[in-house]
Amino acid sequence: MRRALLAVALAGCAGPQPKKPAPLVDAGPPEIGASASATPDAGPKGPCGCDDYGKPEVLGKIGGELDEASGLATSRLHPGIVYTHNDSGDTARVFALREDATQVAEIALVGVKARDFEDIAVGPCPEGSCVYVADIGDNNKVRKSLVVHRFAEPKALAGKLAVNADPLRFKYPDGPHNAEALLVHPKTGELVVVTKVVIGAIGIYRFPTPLAPNVEVTLEHVGEVVGIDPLSQLVTAGAVSPCGDRLLLRTYGRLYEFTVTGSVAAALLGKPREVPAPDEAQGEAVTYRANGQGYLTTSEGLGAPLYGTRCATP
Q: Where do the domains of the chain lie?
């Protein structure tokens, strides 16, 4: 969604806008990870997480056909790589970027029609490490069935690629909701959707396990998120630390971190702390760094900066 959607949402209606194609960013150097193992690393080595975070810094600017970034996810197979995608109005594709925002690859999801991609995550799956793309946006609350597309991380990244994705179809137990945040636990694979509301409770909904591709399931309503500023309840993205001990929820202008001691859903019932967020035009994306010591954010808009935050130095 663009910035105008916020005002439209307050008025009670919105809809996707058509996208005008732009020249593709050069794929850059030879392919990344050509010899990558199908098995991801067990997780970060050494300390994970930060007691305090430093000031967000610009790492680069996003360009090419990526003009409405609406999610970020750090690769488990390819060091220094993050995945992202456009918001509604684009084709079903994911972009792989370096942390300086230069594009490495464009990944098309074969046979998939994108309605409203809103978030992305990387987590475990039968193939080892998978990318989860959440087609969960529903501004008008009319979609009776939604889907998270899951595909194995490509072993090599370069140019234009095509992958087959498993559809994880679902519906809510209490009627349609708009949502833009998907959370995947890096070890257990727990899958959670957090709703986006203008007024009212921020819902926490969890997928039943085991995950079943091509079978529509009804999510479990776990409860409501607490501890977020009532004037800042438009949750636009989420991410779980690669260590599985913390998670982030972001709104357009703020960023909150929760402690995870068990399940992701249970963590969202606790009180978060506010952590540094850059001043972005319309922030809709966040992910932790691969070592868990900091995070990345970006905003919708052509040429939007990709920000990086690290642990604060003593």
A: 47-308
Q: What angle do CA 6, 73, 278 make, to 5 degrees?
A: 50
Helix, strand or coil for residue 4? helix
| CA–CA dist 103, 27 (Å, integer) | 6
**Chain position carrying tokens 């939007």:** 304
Distance from C-alpha of 73 to C-alpha of 108, rounded to nearest angstrom:
16
List C-alpha distances in Å: 233 to 74, 81, 201, 236: 25, 30, 9, 9
- How are beta strands 217-218 and 166-171 bridged, if at all? parallel
For residues 146 and 138, give the distance between their C-alpha atoms in angstroms, rounded to a whole number: 9
Q: What residues contact residue 11 under an 8 Å CB cut-off, 6+ apart?
A: none
Q: What angle do CA 106, 248, 179 make, to 5 degrees?
A: 70
Question: What is the full per-residue pLDDT of the chain (314 aa) written as tens digits?
Answer: 444 343 433 333 333 343 433 333 333 334 555 433 344 545 565 568 899 999 999 999 999 999 889 999 999 999 999 999 999 889 999 999 999 999 999 999 999 999 999 999 999 999 999 999 999 999 999 999 999 999 999 999 999 999 999 999 999 999 999 999 999 999 999 999 999 998 889 999 999 999 999 999 999 999 999 888 877 789 999 999 999 999 999 999 899 999 999 999 999 999 999 999 999 988 999 999 999 999 999 998 889 999 999 999 87
Amino acid at residue number 201: A
The amino acid occupying position 139 is N
Token pair listed for 26? 């050069």
CATH class, 47-308 region:
mainly beta
User: What is the secondary structure of 214-265 as a DSSP string?
Assistant: TS-EEPEEEEE--SS-TT---EEEEEE-TTSSEEEEEESS-EEEEE-SS-HH
Residues in CB range of 152: below 8 A, 6 or more apart: 38, 125, 127, 128, 129, 130, 131, 163
